[in-house]
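Appendix B. Extra example for self-study. Work through it before the problem class; the solution is given directly after the inputs so you can check yourself.
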Amino acid sequence: MNTTMAALGQFGDAIDFIFSERESPAGGTRVGGLAELWELMREHLELSLVSMAVACAISVPLGLWLGHTGKGGFLAINASNVGRAVPSLALIAFFVAYVGVGFTNLVLALVLLAVPPILTNAYTGVRQVDRDTVDAARGMGMTGAQIVRRVELPLALPLIFGGIRISAVNVVATATIAPLAGIVTLGDPIINVNTYGDEGRLAAAIVVALLAVATEVSLAGVQRAVTPRGLKLEASPPRRRLAFPIKRREATT
Amino acid sequence: MSFPFAQLEIREDPTQSCQANNGFCPDWIADNFDRYVDPFFEHVLLTVLSVAIGFGISFALALIAYRRRWLISPVTQVTGMLYTVPSIAAFFLLLPITGRGKVTAIVALVAYVLLIIFRNVLAGLDNVPDETKDAGRGMGLTDRQLLWRVEVPLALPEIMAGLRIAVTTTVGLATLAFFAGAGGLGGQIFADITFKSNVVVAGGLAVLLAAVLDGLILLAQRAITPWTRAVAAR
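Solution. Structure tokens for the complete assembly:
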């Protein structure tokens, strides 16, 4: 019972930290409060958004092209396996030691982290489009570019967004250790606990967790919204002895 | 409370030019390889324990949900939520409850394994052809016999694929376990993140561990599902 109360107490202190400013345990500066956390979150989001934008700009066209031509399947499929084996901390550390600190370098590291799942899903998304559908499009006189844009891309969109979702959550999580590379994100109270105190660290952990869940939930909504109606209908007929067919939207986990 | 992950002075001899210039120093690595041995085995322990516990829980959940389909959606949503919370945040959210140490790290890591294994076990069981199940029933197998002699063996490729994803993911996440006071290779990376030799050895060991464990599971899969090879050879 006592431990439960103590635990609640620490969470209470952390929530208090989010809303009210206080003296830093290290002395001197004031920490905490909505204004400071908003500033940290803004930097966190900016870093994540820039990284995701660059990663999408690279991996979506590349995945579509590889999927359309059927080339480089081995590369596209194994990219996410290799990516998963490299710990995000090791990747950031490698960039800090060999490339240097700063916003651009960190974006580069996060892009490397974000590309593989999107690339793999974009490739798989295009490859799993029914070949008959593509043949029908070609029979209607569509050029290769038209087939990619008007047939393969719409049908692959749910999987592409599945990949973007995985990467975005991963990037938001990894941006937490960005202070190691000199960028002050929501991870700062976690890494520099001397300045912010224990309650600041717990407060940052709460905010980061909420941010990741919000990213996941909103992108899942986008994913549902971009799923073509035809694909939703196709998924609904129930299989034998299977009242709730499980949806397999992602190619990678 | 003092800073728990103080930067260690691991470049003891700054007079040596290689260390002072922050080059890639094979000599330093050879002399200091000892310092990576214990964290490496801590890392192995964290990974193996977490995946084993997570596998036990989610395999059982998947078997139950396979018969009671209404459970699939709530279990997927709860484990999905756990999977979404960044591990570094999970470690600190657990600290007030479980305290610093391996328990906190393992609880958090187990939470990540659940969704991966649950989804793969269920997908594997659902992919067993109805004809095969009917044949098993026709031979007089009970539901339980059907599950363990037909459905689970035929689901093994998907189950093992889930296990491989879980292991490589856990090796990566365990590099952050030092934040929870559980050691592992991440502590070594963090000890001097600007020193090239250190980063390469500690990070390299983590990647190597992921690759080796992944390969071991693949070998185990080949050994316990000989029929998949027979089909491929035809």
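Self-check: Chain A touches chain B through 51 residues (CB under 8 Å). If your reasoning did not lead you there, revisit section 3.
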